[in-house]
Design brief:
The chain contains 20 helices and 2 strands. The protein is mainly α and about 475 residues long.
Length: about 475
């Protein structure tokens, strides 16, 4: 595999550098060009950058192991939720376009400050994204670093692979801006879809086809073929909480809302959203084949053994090499999108001149990358559950954001404060300092329900719509 891997790696790095150079040459170097790619995204670019941001390392590494461990209920966990999210993309896109500030879109945090007339609303929006996206970035880095270390145990240690990915990510993204990231997303999305189907088809063939696959899995553990699964994970409460967390991603994660806002037109937005729904089905289905293959051939094996065997050891050298490059591309693509989005959200909240704010935002991106790298070295190997926790944490921002978008009068100042308190409580639950179940109901459902009732109590549909002009 050495020669195919070397060729694929050189081609990938050369493509990143070419994208960065081209983006730098064709995009203005002001804040709008650097942070928002000029705000003129076609449906094709929008589809693949959106898909690459959503379907990342946890899709190729996390979902197969999730199917292997917890069974077919994982399809309900992610597949149906992603399809509902398509409608959220369209609705949010229309709302953001109607409420576009005169000075141009500068991020959801800035929009919340404008709507609430309080800086706290913007800082809560940014803080919630920061608290729960940095761990999500970290699991992208950790997942691939562990996989590469498992595939090359005599090579670099886990931290060495992680540092290498972060450095590569920062070099090209800081050079070419969001446009370079978008171009690399197109490459990553095509790579991911191609690789996962090559490996998935091979695994399905090894199991003897669709019907034989389920028959073989039933022999190993029949509980894998139904909910709540062999470990009892897929309870109704887990499904509902996960459903809400994933469906609310467009509203609460800045790397997603930014891509919605910079679409060229409504028609491009609609086509992109439809494409994302199709992409979701196409990319999740083969992870089921990988997971069921693992349940039969790698039952009881450690995650690293299962992944390195299924994605590399059991594949041809060319497919194995492409899988490794695809994993690196997926991790870098998602991580830099989220780090870049956090810098974009921070920039309009800072003082000083436009140049000074852009400079501080670029420094913040590097700082966020360092924090994600540090967290990746101590994070758990449960990639999908960590990702789900990240989605659930940012979802708590949704009621405040909905009121800010729909409000026909400046919303009350206490709602951002209440949202901040809920975020801190959920952080305590996630870290194990607070119980995860209260009176028989999951803590995240209690928090989401309470924030939703508080948002309804503000009666955002009454009065005159709050103006949206910045300043």
């Amino acid at each position: 595999m050495t020669l195919p891997l070397l060729i694929a790696a050189l081609c990938y790095v050369a493509a990143l550098m070419a994208f960065s150079w081209y983006a730098r040459r064709t995009t203005s170097r002001d804040a709008r060009g650097y942070l928002f790619a000029g705000g003129n995204l076609s449906a094709f670019l929008g589809l693949f950058t959106f898909a690459a941001t959503l379907f990342s390392t946890f899709t190729l590494l996390g979902m197969p192991d999730f199917f292997r461990t917890h069974g077919v209920g994982a399809w309900l966990f992610l597949g149906f939720s992603d399809l509902l999210m398509v409608f959220g993309i369209i609705w949010l896109g229309l709302q953001l376009r109607r409420r576009r500030p005169e000075g141009g879109y500068q991020g959801m945090a800035r929009l919340m400050i404008t709507a609430y007339r309080r800086p706290l609303a913007g800082w809560v929006c940014l803080g919630g994204a920061f608290l729960f996206l940095i761990p999500y970035v970290a699991i992208q880095i950790r997942g691939v670093a562990i996989f590469l270390h498992g595939s090359f145990p005599t090579g670099l240690p886990v931290w060495g692979w992680a540092v290498g990915m972060v450095v590569l990510m920062l070099v090209y993204s800081e050079t070419g801006g969001l446009k370079a990231i978008i171009y690399s997303d197109v490459l990553q999305g095509i790579l991911l879809l191609t690789i996962i189907w090559l490996i998935g088809a091979n695994c399905l063939g090894e199991l003897g086809g669709w019907q034989a696959m389920f028959a073989e899995v039933e022999k190993v553990d029949a509980a894998l073929l139904s909910t709540p699964g062999p470990k009892g994970l897929f309870t109704p409460q887990f499904m509902l909480a996960s459903f809400l967390a994933i469906a609310l991603i467009p509203y609460t994660q800045p790397q997603v809302s930014t891509r919605i806002m910079i679409m060229r037109s409504r028609q491009a937005l609609f086509r992109m959203a439809l494409g994302v729904g199709i992409f979701a089905i196409l990319v999740i289905l083969p992870t089921l084949f990988l997971g069921m293959y693992g349940a039969v051939h790698y039952a009881g094996a450690e995650t690293s053994v299962f992944l390195s065997g299924t994605l590399v050891g059991d594949q041809s050298p060319v497919v194995a090499a492409l899988a490794m490059i695809g994993l690196i591309a997926a991790a870098i693509s998602t991580a830099d999108s989220q780090l870049f989005a956090l810098g974009s959200e921070l920039k309009p909240l800072l003082g000083g001149s436009e140049e000074d704010r852009l400079r501080w935002a670029r420094l913040a991106i590097a700082l966020f990358a360092g924090l994600a790298l540090a967290f990746s070295l101590v994070a758990s190997d449960e990639l999908v559950l960590l990702a789900r926790t990240s989605f659930a944490g940012t979802a708590l921002l949704a009621p405040m954001i909905f009121v800010g978008l729909l409000g026909r009068q400046p919303p009350p100042a206490w709602l951002p404060g209440l949202t901040l308190a809920a975020l801190l409580v959920f952080l305590g639950v996630s870290l194990g300092y607070l119980p995860g179940v209260w009176l028989g109901l999951r803590a995240d459902l209690w928090l989401m329900g309470g924030l939703s009732l508080a948002a309804l109590a503000t009666r955002p549909w009454l009065g005159t719509r709050a103006p949206v002009e910045d300043g």
